[in-house]
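Quarterly update from the structural biology core.
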Amino acid sequence: MMNAIIKTNIGAMTLGDFEVDMSGENLDLSLFFDVIAVNDTVKHIILHKLFELQMHYVLQFPDEAEEWYDANLVITGKCLHISVDESGKLKTVLLVDYEDAHNPRLWGTAQIEVNLSSHERELRQFIIYSVLKKFC
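Predicted structure, tokenized:
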């Protein structure tokens, strides 16, 4: 699939290929678009979120605080999760996978809410185009 640049309330992202998930009891459709590139604003938001998660972990697990506080986190993946519920409502979340550069036991996924309501029409067209391009 051709990469596409999408503008969000937190900045611009370049999206690549995607996977579809329709598992579970509900009728939600989940699309996971690879995020190939982000602008500086989004990078700053991601780093801030990772710092918040690090501090939260330090406070929650004080016995391991030093290990986490000094952790050199590496971003291992980013994707834009777009879910469509059975009523057609869209929800978008940027998922950022990270791990410690030295200790593979320290890892996680940050979730950053992304508001695309002002671009909903374009997003729906993009989803339809992407699904047709991938499966037809």
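Residues 5 and 14 are 4 Å apart (CA to CA).
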